[in-house]
Design goal:
single chain, mainly alpha, two-stranded antiparallel ribbon
């Protein structure tokens, strides 16, 4: 009941004119980002962070969160109409969604996807409403050792789940930690890795790094892999047939639960949720052969799962201060830039902010439901904008946005440098998200480690002497060992197959 009362108070902030406007802008940009192939919610959110300078923190996070969950809706449209996923979570939707469009049922595919997305998103936000406060209260018992162990567990889970190779994941994660060490030591005040450059005294700017690694690298990669778009299919009829309602509702229910649970796991992005949902639907279907030929469950389940994931992914951020996906890591950077520290204290120190943002997510999902169907063909046509026009425009906006942070050309050159680094990382199949997550969390890991050791009587044993900390670290070690063994087996299997060929 307390959560409901606080949520109603949050609507007072979410429904103010300016916050409604920023919510509308956020979900609209999110739809735009989701529709554009190759850009994705991570790059879109990173590129738009400079626009939030000078805004109130609640308005800034409302807009950035809208980009996050709005992109999940947008990616569906091009997947169904032109067989081109706007972002990675919508790749699975192409399998049956496009087949439905070819059968003249594009409207039904989009209608089911919109309904499932809305239900999954609302259910996840309700989970955040009722699970957030008790989790935050439990997290208040955490000291520096527990926080360090939790952060370490999150990073180990991230490395285990992200990328095709655990070794590549570790390399990318270590690179992010090294970047976080640049600048002044938070304890001793020593200057590290600046190479005599005064601009690096305060460390690397998160926006510069994120926009380079995600935004500029995407422009370079997509300019290299130029794609030709198809003509959008016609949209007729938005609702399923009477006999299709029952299996559709069941798929939406399963997708909601699965997406919500996966959203709580650090490193498990929305693409994992949609893929697992599709696999589940195909496995339990009476006739699995229908999948790939226009099965409505193949659209309803995955689309519900990726939107449930986007809402659930905010729970670890709000309650523990840990990003559970790359896009949430970018939003965490925005929190820090606006002087907010996500975690258990956030519910106590900034209740108006927390509940205002949560309430805005309800509003945003309603707006997206209204936007998603009547304007589907309009959004699809946006994806037809020639890359020769689109990419230079995004590049100009990126340069102007980064320059506006400190009015410094140094930031612009650093963004371009990290853009090239991000491009090379993608070519080498190194997970950029691992680098950004460790870069964001690096300072927190360092400070909690040093605080723990300063109060310890037995050095590193402090992390195993405390029950919660010991459990978290032991779990992290087990996950890392399993991931390494799995990676070695997979590599050995690949080598054996190549040798036999």
């Amino acid at each position: 009941m307390d959560s409901l009362a606080l949520l109603l108070g949050g609507f007072e902030h979410a429904l103010t004119l300016w916050n409604l406007l920023y919510c509308l802008i956020g979900v609209s940009i999110g739809m735009f980002v989701g529709v554009l192939p190759g850009l994705g919610p991570v790059a879109g959110t990173a590129l738009l962070i400079p626009l939030t300078f000078g805004m109130e923190p609640i308005s800034a996070i409302i807009m950035l969160s809208g980009i996050f969950y709005g992109s999940m809706y947008g990616g569906t449209i091009t997947s169904v109409l032109i067989n081109t996923p706007g972002e990675s979570a919508s790749v699975v939707t192409c399998i049956d969604g496009y087949q439905m469009a070819r059968q003249g049922r594009a409207g039904t595919a989009l209608g089911v996807a919109a309904i499932g997305s809305f239900i999954g998103g609302i259910a996840a936000i309700l989970g955040l409403t009722f699970l957030g406060p008790p989790l935050a209260e439990f997290a208040l018992k955490f000291g520096p050792p527990e926080y360090f162990s939790l952060l370490l567990l999150g990073l180990l889970m991230l490395v285990g789940l992200m990328g095709k190779s655990v070794i590549r994941g570790l390399i990318a994660a270590c690179f992010g930690l090294l970047l976080s060490l640049i600048g002044m030591d938070p304890v001793s005040g020593a200057i590290r890795f600046t190479f005599g450059q005064m601009e690096l005294m305060e460390g690397l700017d998160f926006v510069v790094v994120a926009m380079g690694l995600f935004g500029i690298s995407e422009i370079l990669l997509n300019a290299e892999n130029h794609m030709k778009m198809e003509t959008p299919a016609k949209i007729q009829g938005l609702l399923p047939k009477r006999e299709e309602w029952k299996p559709t509702i069941k798929s939406i229910g399963r997708g909601t639960v699965l997406g919500f649970l996966i959203g709580l796991i650090p490193g498990a992005n929305a693409a994992i949720a949609s893929i697992l949902s599709y696999s589940l639907e195909k496995k339990i279907a009476k006739d699995p052969s229908r999948f790939g030929k226009g099965a409505i469950e193949g659209v309803a389940g995955p689309e519900t799962a990726n939107n449930a994931h986007s809402g659930a992914a905010m729970i670890p951020l709000f309650t523990l201060g840990i990003p559970s996906s790359p896009t949430v890591a970018v939003i965490l950077g925005a929190f820090i830039m606006h002087g907010l520290t996500p975690g258990p204290q956030l519910f106590q120190n900034n209740p108006d902010f927390v509940w205002g943002v949560i309430a805005s997510m309800f509003v945003g999902n309603v707006i997206l439901l209204i936007f998603n169907l009547p304007l589907a063909r309009v959004w699809a046509k946006i994806a037809m904008v020639p890359y020769e026009i689109l990419f230079p425009l995004i590049l100009i906006l990126s340069v102007v946005g980064v320059y506006s942070i400190n009015s410094s050309l140094w930031d612009v050159w650093m963004m371009i440098l990290f853009g090239v680094i991000g491009y090379l990382m993608k070519k080498l199949d190194l997970p950029i998200a691992a680098t950004v997550l460790t870069f964001v969390l690096g300072s927190q890991i360092e400070s909690t480690l040093l605080q723990s050791l300063a109060t310890s009587q037995h050095g590193l044993l402090i992390f195993f002497e405390r029950p919660i900390s010991g459990t978290l670290i032991s779990l992290g070690i087990v996950i890392l060992v399993i991931s390494l063994i799995s990676g070695i087996k997979k590599k050995r299997s690949t080598l054996v197959n190549d040798f036999e060929m």
